[in-house]
């Protein structure tokens, strides 16, 4: 099993979905890093989009998982090829989250620091149950 940890910003609000009567939550996270191109000297930013799925988010944290929110994600990594709308093969990066934490910041409603997290390490997801 491959485990991964990422910090990034939500690209969309978290969505609640149901598959075969089971509720789960999905969202996408953009994780970026910068480096200096040795040949040109320019600063290059590369962004990787990661699809996140979790069956165990609390309603308390779910309300804060909005577009632009910075989060820490820990879970099982899966890399899969898929065909896009353009008909070309792409590589999808997916994480089945065991832990989701907000990385601070101010809530628009409360102007207070947000440090809520959901740790779901006790709740294992079987490989065959994934909605990817």
Topology record:
Elements: E1 3-10, E2 15-19, E3 22-36, E4 43-54, H1 59-62, E5 70-83, E6 89-102, E7 117-119
Parallel strand pairs: 4-6
Antiparallel strand pairs: 1-3, 1-5, 2-3, 3-4, 5-6, 6-7
What does this structure look like?
With 132 residues, the chain is mainly beta. The protein is built from one helix and seven strands, in the order E-E-E-E-H-E-E-E. The protein has one domain (3-129): OB fold (Dihydrolipoamide Acetyltransferase, E2P), CATH 2.40.50.140. Strand 5 and strand 6 (89-102) form a beta hairpin. It is globular. This is Single-stranded DNA-binding protein. GO terms for molecular function: single-stranded DNA binding. Residues 104-132 are annotated as: Disordered. Residues 112-123 have a biased composition (Low complexity).
Number of domains: 1
Strand content: over 45%
What would the CATH topology be? OB fold (Dihydrolipoamide Acetyltransferase, E2P)
Say which CATH homologous superfamily is assigned: Nucleic acid-binding proteins
Order of strands across the biggest sheet?
1-3-4-6-5
How many helices? The count is 1
Structural class: mainly beta
Helix content: under 10%
Give a short account of the largest sheet.
5 strands, mixed, barrel
CATH class: Mainly Beta
């Amino acid at each position: 099993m491959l485990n991964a940890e990422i910090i990034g910003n939500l690209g969309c609000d978290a969505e609640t979905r149901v598959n075969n009567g089971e509720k789960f939550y999905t969202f996408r996270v953009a994780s970026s890093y910068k480096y200096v191109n040795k040949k040109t000297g320019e600063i290059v930013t590369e962004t990787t989009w990661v699809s996140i799925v979790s069956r165990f988010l609390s309603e308390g944290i779910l309300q804060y998982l909005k577009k632009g929110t910075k989060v820490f994600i820990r879970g099982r990594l899966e890399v899969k090829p898929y065909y896009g709308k353009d008909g070309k093969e792409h590589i999808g990066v997916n994480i089945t989250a065991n832990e989701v934490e907000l990385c601070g910041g101010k809530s628009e409603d409360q102007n207070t620091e947000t440090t809520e997290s959901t740790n779901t390490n006790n709740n294992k997801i079987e490989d065959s149950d994934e909605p990817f």
